[in-house]
Each structure stands twice: as structure tokens, then as C-alpha cells.
């Protein structure tokens, strides 16, 4: 009879060993998943920044047609981070009041030269640098607010601009002669996508 009472008094639940095993499994799974989650968050940040930058260029293009003025996209530094803005007052200096369209890039993004491989990009007869847009909304090489040359020699102007990240990633912005603006991210292997 005594053993029956002992079993009734015993409490049901998890033992400390069982809890430690479950905790260890959760930690192992987390350790494997967190780097992938962080890489995905980083990639989404870069895609978002690239989308904002292409949007800024498109807004500059549309505004040049609306205002019938040549406008250029320039870079500046805002709180230690690379930023792009549309220079609507033609002074080549960023002023928040007169240059409302600005895109601040994530920490660790910098301007770069042409990467080792440009697979996936049409880089024939390109001007490497930031574009300006003429009164017809076409990309042009900036001379001044009254002179923005649409032709690059015998070819219509087209631009490519490269950025790198502190994690070794490469981004590119292309502007076709017709004014089509597209952002690209190096896939880490063979091509821009």
C-alpha cells in the first residue's frame, strides 16, 4: 500500500534533464538559422536601398521633363553615410530645403570602380558615373544647367554606376539611352541580377 501513496504524491512534469535537452536543441537550431536570417535581412536592405536609388533617379528624370530643365543626380555624405540627391537648384551642394529628394544608403555602402566582372550588364559605350537628365527626360552628360549632352560620341548616352558593400557585395545602377533605370545586385557567383 505504501507504494501506491508514493506514486500518487509524485508530481508530473518535465525533469531538469529533459528541459536542458530541449534547450540545447533550440540553441543548435538557432545557431544554424541565424546566419541565414541575417544574410536575408542584409540582402533585403540592399535591394530596398537600390529600389530607393532607382526611384530617386526616376523622380529626377520626370522632374526634368516637368520643369523643362536639366537636372543631375549627385552624391553627398550625411552623418557618415553615402547619400544621393537630385540637385534641383544647380549649385552642386546638398541643401535639405531645396533638394528634397535624397536617398541615404545603408551603413557600409560605398562608391566603387568597375568590378572584375560585369556579366549580365550591357557595358558597351557606357559612361561610368551618375547621370543627368535633359528636358526630354533622356540621360545626358552634365556640363552645366544649360548644356547636358545626350550624345556620347556617335552613341546616345547610357550610364552605369557601381557601389560596393562592406560585406563584399556589388550593386549597379544602369540608365539606358531611352531613360530606363534599373538596379542590379551581384549574385556572388557569376552575374548581375
Summarize the structure.
With 193 residues, the protein is of the alpha+beta class. It contains two helices and 13 strands.
Write the layout of secondary structure elements.
Blueprint: H1 2-9, H2 16-67, E1 71-78, E2 81-87, E3 102-104, E4 109-111, E5 127-128, E6 132-133, E7 139-144, E8 147-149, E9 151-152, E10 155-156, E11 159-165, E12 170-175, E13 181-185
Parallel strand pairs: 5-11
Antiparallel strand pairs: 1-2, 1-6, 2-3, 4-11, 6-7, 7-8, 9-10, 11-12, 12-13
Overall structural domain count: 1
Helix-and-strand structural type: alpha+beta
Q: How much helical structure, as a percent, in the residues?
A: 25-40%
Give the number of helices: 2
Please provide a written account of the structure:
This protein has one domain (16-185): minor pseudopilin epsh fold. A hairpin with a 5-residue loop joins strand 6 and strand 7 (139-144). It has helices at residues 2-9, 16-67; strands at 71-78, 81-87, 102-104, 109-111, 127-128, 132-133, 139-144, 147-149, 151-152, 155-156, 159-165, 170-175, 181-185. The longest helix has 52 residues, at 16-67. The model has no long low-confidence stretch (mean pLDDT 88). With 193 residues, it is an alpha+beta fold. It has a six-stranded antiparallel sheet with strand order 3-2-1-6-7-8, with helices on one face.
